[in-house]
Structure formats: C-alpha cells, structure tokens
Design goal:
This protein is mainly alpha-helical. The chain is built from three helices and no strands. It is rod-shaped, with a radius of gyration of 36 Å.
Length: 137
C-alpha cells in the first residue's frame, strides 16, 4: 500500500514537474516572441521618425528656397528700376547684412551645441574677414 502511495506521489511529482517545465518553456518562447516584436516595433518607429524628419527637412528646404527665389526676384526688380551706384550698393549691403546674420546664427547654434571649439574658430575667422574688410575702407 505504501509502495503504491509512494509511486502515486512520485508520478504526481513527475507530472507536476513536467507541467512546470512545459510552462517555463512556453513562457520563455512567449517572452522571446514579445522581445522580437518589441524590436520590430522599435525599428518601425525609428524608420517612421527618420522619414518624418526627412520630410520636415525637405519642407523647410523648400520654404527656404522659395524665400530665396522671392528675394532674388525682388532684388532683380529693384535693380531694373534704378541702376545707380547707390542702389547697387544698397542691394549688396542688404545681402552682406543678411549673410553676416546667418553666419552669426550658425555660430551661436554651434556654441549652444557640442561643437564649441569649431564655433570659436569660425567666429575668429569671421572677425578676421570683417576686420580686413574694415581696414580696406
């Protein structure tokens, strides 16, 4: 009787162990699948973000190009209306101011970012050019 009871307990333990091992294996497979799905979703998200960023950059570039074309047309119109030295000077002066402002903006952006050393070099170069131009006056 005790032998039968011991055998039954041993079979029950073996069955419980097998069920537990099966549960662990199933859980491990489900975990691996979930991790793989997460990786795929993260990759899809990255691709979507990259695409959105590229589209935003394209839109910004198109806007900037349109503004430049409008400015060019405006300047061409001004030149046609009055082709005196003063008008030509004014056009170039405006362009120079716009360029200097853009360069300063880029330098300030670099200073705020991680490229402070390059920003300092570019600032020095800009100062050198402006000083040389001033000395020629």
């Amino acid at each position: 009787m005790k032998a039968l009871q011991a055998k039954a307990e041993e079979e029950a333990r073996a069955k419980a162990k097998a069920e537990l091992e099966q549960g662990i294996a199933t859980t491990a497979e489900e975990t691996a699948k979930a991790i793989e799905q997460q990786k795929q979703l993260e990759e899809q998200l990255k691709v979507a973000q990259d695409t959105a960023k590229a589209e935003a950059e394209d839109a910004a570039a198109a806007t900037e190009l349109k503004a430049a074309k409008d400015r060019t047309a405006d300047l061409e119109k001004k030149l046609k209306l009055a082709n005196t030295d003063t008008t030509v000077f004014a056009v170039h002066f405006e362009d120079l101011q716009a360029c200097i402002n853009k360069l300063n903006g880029l330098i300030m952006k670099m200073e705020k970012g991680e490229d402070k050393e390059t920003a300092l070099k570019l600032k020095t170069a800009l100062k050198t050019v402006l000083t040389a131009a001033t000395e020629k006056l």
